[in-house]
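Postdoc handover notes: sequence design on the structure in folder B. Input tokens:
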């Protein structure tokens, strides 16, 4: 097959591994800088150009679109879809998962375990919002934050109030969420490929840190997950319409709760922690499912 990898940086571990895995399985791979792709949006013959040339046909495209280029990146991916190229994850599903609020709304409709969360616009409603999610301590999140930046733990009600007021004053949208203390600064990353959780790891935040993000100093280790966690991860992936994703779960007293679903999950942490060939699994999944024109919208429908 001819496979395109859409990324900002071909030297990143994940891009390199996907390229290696595809080539070793006999595919022709082209790595494209997503920001250098431009589009001709013409009736009947949509095309993509790259550094002065028109791109030829591809059988599949692997999007690795970073949070900072979501808008342009999903537009380029959509153009591939318009041309009938099979996307590993669809542009609509990526857009859904990039918005924490939209994701939680879709997951809640399916009855998937979630931390109690609230969203409001007016400072007048903050007191009730805090009450709604069970009071302090609570977590406040910027809607489009990533890598742990923009996630704040407010220990007291007055701290929560002033942080929420400041964010709203800056016209930033924030999500207010019940703090799952018993998770102990750890979460479980379930790596989903198709209908399977192919690997899982536990990420533990650095000493004194409630955020488990590797970028914030967290460390990863192998973990075995329960049947309920597995089922939760697969249902979350399905609801978002993502074929390949990282579902982040907190172990709450009442069972697994989904924190977020990542549409471009990194391969380095999970391959190192588990010793598995996840890139190979991704390519095998493409071989099994890719079909020209198979670009219809999956999942949540919103
Ligand atoms: P980001 O997209 O920036 O990674 P997350 O929503 O994943 O934002 O939050 C970052 C980290 O903060 C999580 O990995 C988790 O360890 C911790 N965290 C987030 N929400 C909660 C919560 N409601 N209760 C406990 N810990 C949380
Ligand atoms: Mg996260």
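Designed sequence:
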């Amino acid at each position: 097959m001819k496979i395109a990898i859409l990324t900002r940086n071909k030297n990143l571990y994940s891009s390199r591994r996907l390229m290696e895995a595809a080539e070793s399985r006999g595919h022709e791979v082209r790595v494209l800088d997503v920001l250098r792709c431009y589009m001709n949006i013409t009736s009947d013959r949509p095309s993509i150009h790259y550094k002065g040339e028109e791109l030829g046909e591809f059988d599949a495209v692997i999007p690795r679109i970073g949070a900072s280029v979501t808008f342009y990146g999903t537009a380029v991916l959509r153009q591939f879809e318009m041309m009938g190229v099979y996307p590993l994850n669809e542009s609509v599903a990526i857009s859904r998962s990039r918005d924490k609020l939209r994701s939680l709304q879709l997951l809640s409709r399916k009855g998937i375990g979630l931390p109690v969360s609230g969203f409001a616009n007016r400072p007048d409603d903050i007191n009730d919002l805090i009450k709604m999610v069970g009071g302090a301590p609570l977590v406040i999140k910027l809607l489009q934050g990533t890598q742990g930046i923009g996630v704040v733990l407010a220990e007291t009600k007055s701290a929560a109030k002033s942080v929420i007021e400041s964010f709203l004053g800056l016209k930033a949208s924030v999500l207010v969420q019940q703090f799952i203390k018993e998770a102990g600064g750890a979460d479980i990353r379930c790596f989903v490929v198709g209908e399977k959780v192919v690997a899982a790891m536990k990420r533990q935040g650095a000493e004194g840190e409630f955020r488990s993000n590797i970028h914030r100093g967290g460390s990863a280790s192998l973990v075995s997950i329960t049947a309920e966690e597995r089922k939760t991860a697969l249902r979350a992936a399905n609801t978002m319409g993502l074929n390949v994703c990282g579902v982040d779960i907190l172990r709450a007293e009442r069972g697994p709760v989904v924190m977020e679903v990542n549409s471009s999950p990194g391969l380095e942490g999970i391959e190192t922690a588990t010793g598995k060939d996840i890139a190979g699994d991704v390519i095998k999944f493409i071989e099994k499912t890719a079909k020209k024109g198979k670009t219809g919208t999956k999942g949540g429908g919103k």
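Context for whoever picks this up: The first strand starts at residue 2 and ends at 7. Don't rerun without checking with the PI first.
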